[in-house]
């Protein structure tokens, strides 16, 4: 606290410190949680107890259901005590609900991307409008992820992102299709987009249309997933040990245990050492599949 907010040493114990601590205590938040919340963002101590602290905590408890969950969120981000939630979080939640987004999905965003729901209501409406224009369906569970991704960029950066896809050879229809299938892909850096595309096309087993149909490949780790699996499949294919090269969805979505079971364990002599050397397997998991 002293490192980030030295002025706390001069703060009034009776007027600044104790009233905030008491509000947390009255809400049932443990001493350990209070210590972590305050030490993570001690500037919250200077917020008005009546105009900011109490109303914000009340709003959070209404949406999250318990003091324990409120503490959990505040340990993740102190922004909920900095802004007027009745003018940001509350109207944004109500607006998203009116768009068909379920409360369960909204609550997940509070934990995973706390700043997302603290935009101004005017901006939130602009984000939703842009997502609507991209053709995303409000009935899809991906809709809120699309809105969140759009909210993370300025208009200029968004246009630059679309240009990056275009420069990589994707048509406007391809871009719209990928956005509707996997919005998080649009938060991936240009460098990684280019790298994934080059690695996949270099196999000569996949083309642009394959990537468009399974854009989640862009969020996969190139070094830990895509390259090791491609290398294994390449060896098996060259030795005629697989009848058909698997779809891109198999490469990107198949859990590691399933991939090991189908493509590595039956061919340990051929690909075991290669996969161990190029993948992120732990020594314990190597033992499980018989690799020393």
TrEMBL record:
InterPro entries: MTERF (IPR003690), MTERF_sf (IPR038538). Keywords: Transcription, Transcription regulation, Transcription termination, Transit peptide. GO terms for biological process: DNA-templated transcription termination. It holds the Pfam family mTERF. Belongs to the mTERF family. This is Mitochondrial transcription termination factor family protein. The lineage of its organism: Eukaryota, Viridiplantae, Streptophyta, Embryophyta, Tracheophyta.
């Amino acid at each position: 606290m002293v490192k980030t907010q030295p002025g706390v040493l001069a703060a009034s114990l009776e007027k600044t410190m104790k009233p905030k601590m008491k509000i947390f205590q009255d809400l049932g938040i443990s001493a350990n949680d209070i210590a972590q919340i305050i030490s993570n963002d001690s500037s919250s101590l200077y917020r008005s107890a009546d105009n900011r602290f109490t109303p914000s905590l009340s709003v959070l408890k209404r949406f999250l259901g318990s003091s324990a969950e409120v503490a959990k969120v505040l340990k993740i981000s102190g922004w909920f005590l900095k802004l007027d939630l009745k003018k940001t979080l509350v109207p944004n939640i109500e607006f998203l609900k009116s768009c068909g987004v379920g409360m369960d999905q909204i609550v997940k965003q509070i934990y995973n991307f706390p700043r997302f729901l603290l935009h101004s209501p005017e901006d939130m409406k602009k984000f939703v409008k842009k997502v609507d224009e991209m053709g995303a369906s409000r009935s899809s569970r991906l809709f809120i992820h699309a809105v969140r991704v759009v909210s993370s960029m300025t208009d200029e950066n968004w246009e630059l992102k679309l240009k990056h896809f275009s420069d990589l050879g994707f048509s406007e229809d391809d871009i719209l299709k990928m956005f509707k299938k996997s919005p998080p892909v649009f938060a991936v850096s240009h460098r990684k987009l280019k790298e994934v595309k080059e690695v996949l096309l270099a196999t000569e087993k996949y083309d642009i249309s394959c990537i468009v149909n399974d854009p989640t490949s862009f969020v996969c780790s190139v070094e830990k997933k895509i390259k090791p699996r491609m290398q294994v499949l390449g060896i098996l294919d060259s030795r005629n040990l697989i009848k058909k090269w698997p779809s891109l969805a198999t490469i990107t979505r198949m859990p590691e245990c399933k991939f090991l079971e189908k493509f590595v364990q039956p061919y340990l002599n051929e690909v075991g050492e290669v996969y161990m050397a190029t993948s992120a397997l732990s020594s314990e998991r190597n033992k499980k599949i018989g690799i020393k």
